[in-house]
Inverse folding.
């Protein structure tokens, strides 16, 4: 098997706003769209991101452990800019920290089961044993 995509859930009320965040602010391209879901890819990446509409009444209380993760030289600032963009669209968002080099953005009304993480690039410098 070969890894293809990761799927996360969005509140239908904020679905299009979050898709716009990923396309307009993070440069993702739309690959495929159905009534319930969308598949996106960031140029240069080889993994896709799927968002599905979810009418789940509750939110995952442990969603800080489930991230769509990005690398950034300025992770807090990058997430704060996304939070400000979401706020401008009427979606409350907040930035928190896992550590001084790892941060997360949560938009509780929109993100059902994940947060957006940004971390310093050196944290993803893993040695590969092939």
């Amino acid at each position: 098997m070969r890894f293809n995509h990761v799927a996360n859930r969005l509140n239908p009320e904020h679905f299009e706003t979050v898709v716009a965040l990923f396309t307009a602010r993070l440069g993702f391209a739309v690959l495929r769209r159905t009534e319930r879901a969308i598949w996106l890819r960031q140029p240069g990446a080889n993994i896709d991101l799927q968002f599905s509409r979810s009418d789940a009444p509750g939110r995952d209380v442990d969603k800080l452990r489930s991230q769509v993760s990005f690398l950034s030289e300025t992770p807090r600032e990058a997430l704060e800019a996304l939070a400000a963009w979401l706020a401008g669209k009427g979606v409350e968002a907040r930035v928190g920290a896992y550590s001084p080099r790892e941060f997360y953005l949560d938009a509780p009304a929109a993100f059902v089961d994940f947060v957006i993480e940004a971390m310093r690039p050196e944290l993803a410098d893993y040695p590969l044993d092939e």
Summary: Residues 5-121 form a domain with the 2,3-Dihydroxybiphenyl 1,2-Dioxygenase; domain 1 fold (CATH 3.10.180.10). The two ends are 17 Å apart (CA to CA). Residues 75-88 form the longest helix (14 residues). The chain has one domain: 5-121.
